[in-house]
Amino acid sequence: MxxxxxxxxxxxxxxxxxxxxxxxxxxNKNTANDKEIRxxxxxxxxxxxxxxxxxxxxxKGIKIVAVADAFEDNVKEGLEYxxxxxxxxxxxxxxxxxxxxxxxxxxxxxxxxxxxxxxPPHFRPIHLEYAVNKKKHVFMEKPVAVDGFGIRSVLESTxxxxxxxxxxxxxxxxxxxxxxxEAIEQCHNGAIGEFQYAxxxxxxxxxxxxxRKPGMTEMEYQMRNxxxxxxLCGDHIVxxxxxxxxxxxxxxxEHPAKCSGMGGRQVRKSKEHGEIYDHFFTEYEYAxxxxxxxxxxxxxxxxxxVQEIAYGTKGSCDFGKxxxxxxxxxxxxxxxxxGHQEExxxxxxxxDKGEVYNEGQNGAxxxxxxxxxxxxxxxxxxxxxxxxxNSDLRLAPESYAWxxxxxxCLTKMVTTLFQFRx
Length: 422
Ligand SMILES: NC(=O)c1ccc[n+]([C@@H]2O[C@H](COP(=O)([O-])OP(=O)(O)OC[C@H]3O[C@@H](n4cnc5c(N)ncnc54)[C@H](O)[C@@H]3O)[C@@H](O)[C@H]2O)c1
What we know:
Elements: H1 6-17, E1 37-42, H2 46-58, E2 62-69, H3 72-85, E3 97-99, H4 103-108, E4 114-117, H5 124-133, E5 137-140, H6 148-164, E6 168-170, H7 178-188, E7 195-204, H8 218-224, H9 230-233, H10 236-239, H11 242-252, E8 258-264, E9 279-285, E10 291-298, E11 305-312, E12 315-318, E13 323-326, E14 330-331, H12 339-352, H13 360-379, E15 383-384, H14 385-390, H15 414-419
Parallel strand pairs: 1-2, 1-4, 2-3, 4-5, 5-6, 7-10
Antiparallel strand pairs: 7-11, 8-9, 8-15, 9-10, 11-12, 12-13, 13-14
Helix pairs in contact: 2-3, 2-12, 5-6, 6-13, 7-11, 11-13
């Protein structure tokens, strides 16, 4: 299990890269292919609605046939939104609207071709396992897990999808944007020389909070306000910074070997901010001794910066500014696209041609890179890739029930972390 081989990683990303040349992924609404693709949506929040909308936008014949959410109000709201935005491609009878912790099973059991998984990341491994065992194509959002336990499960499911020959797409949409693809290609072709180090940032003011309402159980409150609880979210280094860490892994063609870091809570002091940190600084080291220096901060009234820069012996590549400076100057002049939409053009184009691709391994590696950073920062010790992957720390409640108590709190498990069975 610990052998996440570089060869495999390069192979799976190369398969995705091969799509780059098909700039004319020219599927659009005029396509002659109206073959029906029946889609089920699990997790009807902001991203789930967005992904479902973007899937239907690709072409006619793509239908949403079932929806599921943990909460009844969210599934109803999501369904209404999608019906209003694209009534002709919504085909969801009342009996295909599900809510509760097991809603995902009921939805996936509906006759369908593809499942969108867009819940908080804690549930991804569980939902993915069910979907691949039912031989469904899957589009799942990032991050793909919150702990090593979940990553191991996702890797198993990735293999099952490979064996089934079913699609496994991951919402790391930079892989489907031509600015990133071309910049990476330049780096791989030697434009910046030999890679020396990289700097990455996800510094922003933070995200929403969802207030506790009278009568809510602790489980309901945490599920609604999921971003602030590690067992559901993985902390913001995992939730958002994953995108930037993933880009440098892509440049390197491998994941880091180890990392050390620090972090804490400087402004997140109220109860509604749960337990996650508001800042991290993490230093990742790759097998060849090169580094990635990472900042992830959620603090209002500070400088915002979401960016990746790779530095080499001949120059540097600023992915956000889409340019290479140094000996081999380059600027992106290609097609500007929405990654969220383009990833669906690619996915449906592949299915229409009877092809599949599998981004599961890369999704797992990007997620584990971020988890490793969290582990190092919470524990104060160096964490290796194997430590993170084989960790027996499991961030999960005793049961998935609205009256469940004993919800895991990572900051209270800190003794375990210092003992380093993290
Ligand atoms: N790729 C991107 O750029 C991008 C952007 C935004 C969000 N995301 C990802 O999408 C995921 C969802 O984020 P969001 O912004 O839509 O959050 P959200 O809170 O708006 O929506 C999550 C939905 O999932 C539901 N849910 C929770 N647990 C569930 C369960 N066990 N079964 C079924 N439904 C469940 C919630 O009730 C909610 O409706 C996250 O992993 C996030 O990182 C990705």
